[in-house]
Specification:
about 325 residues, alpha/beta, Rossmann fold, DNA polymerase, domain 1, seven-stranded mixed β-sheet, globular, binds S-adenosylmethionine
Length: about 325
């Protein structure tokens, strides 16, 4: 594991402020990473606040265990997905959960650690793995590239990467794999470069392709949808949920889920009266998403795309 800083926590002051921490607060950090947010939460909730930390990645659990050692039995760490928050709450948590933080995506450690295959720098001989949990996930990026149809590959690139030329790339991958498999990041980057797609655009096309594959490999949108619903369910009334998203797909899903929970009723808008009887379960605290200020961007350019949204669980639900 890298000895340098595992991950610089993003929008830290804003996260702490929206969690509304007090001594004794019980907080779930669903995306522990290197434990940066977690350490600050534990300090703010001293002397007896507790933190339950989840991460899919065993490297993250090990790094956070090291970093949070001094907090002793105020910390419990579990290698699990935040989409299992209901089970985790039932197994571990006390009667109340006062706050939940989800800081989505990958950590700097995961991006920088070549063996994980998230890296898209030219010439990278890293394997096309991209599983968040490093070992146990169902499939790797190389498996997807070797097995999906042209249509399915196109859908992954267009939906999760918004990549111009998605169909051309999908076709080129299928043509290439018939003679030679795509196994390393360099194989894929060379193929993308040779097609000239997305040239001159704001985002490097390889960045978009790698993002799309990572989202598909880890079913990130499915996990986020399940995790947000579970988070709202398990919070105590008045408890806080803070979510930091790093691309528009994630942020849109957070915004929609918050709005639906704040609305309650799921009846079609053209119906004259509500028949579902579902009450609002959530109040949105951030009218607009909060991004990093100039000082944070100067210190940590990787915070560039971060968008924080927060809300509170309502009594009536
Ligand atoms: C941006 S990092 C979090 C960094 C952390 N807040 C810190 O201060 O160090 C995101 C982390 O979430 C983890 N992760 C992503 N999806 C997850 C999921 N569905 N369940 C649990 N952890 C997940 C990743 O493995 C990664 O370690």
């Amino acid at each position: 594991m890298a000895t340098t800083l595992y991950h610089e926590p993003v929008l830290l002051a804003e996260t702490l402020a929206h969690l509304n921490l007090e001594p004794g607060s019980v907080i779930v950090d669903g995306t522990l990473g290197g434990g940066g947010h977690a350490a600050a939460i534990l300090e703010r909730a001293a002397p007896d606040g507790r933190l339950i930390g989840l991460d899919l990645d065993s490297d993250a659990i090990a790094a956070a265990a090291d970093r949070l050692q001094s907090f002793g039995d105020r910390v419990q760490l579990i290698q699990a997905s935040f989409r299992r928050l209901d089970d985790v709450a039932a197994e571990l948590a006390p009667t109340t959960i006062d706050g939940i933080v989800l800081d989505l995506g990958v950590s700097s450690y995961q991006l920088d650690e070549a063996s994980r295959g998230f890296r898209f720098s030219p010439g990278a001989e890293s394997p096309l793995d991209m599983r968040m949990d490093g070992v146990g996930g169902p499939t790797t990026a190389a498996n997807l590239l070797a097995s999906l149809s042209v249509e399915d590959l196109e859908q992954v690139f267009s939906e999760y990467g918004q990549l111009p030329g998605s169909r051309r790339l999908a076709r080129a991958i299928v043509a290439r794999r018939n003679s030679e498999p795509l196994e390393t990041a360099a194989d894929l980057i060379d193929l993308i470069g040779g097609l000239g797609i997305g040239r001159g655009r704001r985002h490097n096309p390889a960045t978009l392709v790698f993002q799309a594959l990572r989202i598909a490999v880890n079913d990130e949108m499915g996990a986020l949808g399940d995790g947000l619903q579970a988070a709202i369910r398990v919070l105590r009334p008045g408890g806080r949920l803070v979510v930091i998203a790093y691309h528009s797909l994630e942020d849109r899903l957070v915004k929609r889920t918050f709005r639906q929970a704040a609305r309650g009723c799921t009846c079609p808008s053209e119906w004259p009266a509500c028949t579902c009887g579902i009450l609002p379960s959530f109040e949105i605290l951030t009218r607009r998403p909060i991004g990093p200020g100039p000082e944070e961007l100067e210190r940590n350019p990787r915070a560039r795309s971060a968008r924080l949204r927060a809300g509170t669980r309502l009594e009536a639900a």
